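INFO  loader      accepted 1 record
INFO  loader      residues=177
INFO  predictor   begin
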Amino acid sequence: MALIFEETLNPWWEQFAITGFPSGLVISGQVYRGTKYQLTTAQLLALQTTAVTLVPAPVTGGGISTPPAGFAYYPTRLKAEYIFNSTAFTIANADNAFQIEYVGKSTALLSMLVTGLVDQSASTIAVNSVTTPGPKIALANCANLGLEVKLIGTTPALTLGNGAVNLFLEYTIIPLF
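INFO  predictor   done
INFO  writer      dumping C-alpha cells
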C-alpha cells in the first residue's frame, strides 16, 4: 500500500478550488464538479476567434507513487444567463452556438444555440444537457486537457451588442488508468 502525504495531495485538490462545488459530488465512483465564468462584451464579440478556458487542465502525478494515467473531463450540463445591458447582440445566423470543447481541440462536447439568448432585449436564461451518449474520443484528444468555450457558426457571429453571459458548466472527472 502506498502512502499519500497531505503535501502531495493538496496541489491536486487545489485545482478544483475555483469550481462552484467546493467538494464535488461522488456518485457511482464519478466525481461531479461545476464551474462558473462570466463572458464580458469584449469576450463575446471575440469568442468566434478567441476561445475562453473554463476549466484548466488537471494536475496529474503530484508525487503519488502509482498515479492514474491522468483524467478526462466530461461536460454534462451548460447553463447560460444573458445579462442585458442596453443593446441586444446581432446574430449572423441561427447556426451560431456556444460550444464546449477540450482546449486546443474541435470536437463538440456540448453546445447551445445563442439565438433567443443574447439577441433579446431582456436578461434571459438557457440550459442544455447531454441527453444522449457523447462522442467517442481518442484518449490523446481528451486526457489531461481543460475545457473551453468557443462560438461556432456563421461569421461574424455576434456584432453590435453589449452585455455579459454567465456560463455555469457541470462536468464529471474520469480517472484514466
